[in-house]
Design a protein that fits this description.
With 211 residues, the chain is mainly beta. The protein contains 1 helix and 12 strands, in the order H-E-E-E-E-E-E-E-E-E-E-E-E.
């Protein structure tokens, strides 16, 4: 089974758990469905000289997804999310530019702590795992733009890592909203061959609603 299908299967199991968990813990605050979107700054933690480039810079993109927040009490909660996010970096050479486009499907499992009950500031931290979705190299030179799929014998699709961040919740005209800034550090070395590890990281800025 492909890693991307495993990600969807695990998230489906989380969704099956939602009705039961709310039903047996009716004395606690009820859970919330999340929907969010926002910009992403992605990069790669690569061994110096891995691609023998003159310089490397971040790739700008976006993330979007949804999830479920399960309260533990008035301050603490667990979150399970499913998101699509862009990843990769841009390598500059003398006569051309190479973009590694490593978009992914991910499940973050997060612990959330509110600094006071109700609305206001909160902190999050946890882990994520997921799968690369058809990673490619995009070459831009004098002849135009050329896209080449990454060799599956040299790239691992499975991802995992850590997430840490914080945000703010508020209600605007009866709609519960939140903003969040988080850093995601990949721990998986996606390179199979020699030449040093290659890990993905992103800075996510999202805005979302809670139902």
């Amino acid at each position: 089974m492909k890693p991307s299908k495993i990600v969807l299967l695990v998230f489906s199991l989380f969704l099956l758990f939602i009705p039961y968990s709310d039903g047996v813990q009716s004395s606690k605050p009820r859970g919330s469905i999340l929907a969010f979107i926002g910009p992403v700054i992605s990069n790669e933690s690569a061994t110096e000289g891995l691609f023998q480039a003159q310089s490397k810079k971040a790739r700008f993109g976006f993330t979007a997804g949804g999830g479920y927040e399960h309260p533990l009490d008035l301050r603490m909660a667990l979150q399970f999310r499913l998101l699509y996010t862009t990843g990769g970096a841009i390598y500059e050479y003398g006569s051309y530019t190479m973009t590694t486009r490593e978009n992914s499907l991910e499940i973050p499992c997060l612990f959330k702590y509110k600094f006071k009950p109700g609305e206001g500031l909160f902190a999050i931290g946890g882990i994520f795992f997921g799968s690369l979705l058809s990673p490619v190299h995009v070459i831009e030179d004098d002849q135009g733009t050329h896209e080449t799929a990454m060799d599956p014998d040299r790239i691992r699709e499975f991802l995992y890592g850590l997430i840490v961040g914080g945000g703010y919740e508020m209600t605007v005209r009866g709609v519960r909203m939140f903003g969040e800034l988080a850093y995601k550090q990949g721990l998986a070395n996606i390179k199979k061959d020699e030449g040093g590890p290659l890990r993905l990281n992103t800075i996510n800025l999202i805005a979302g609603v809670k139902f």
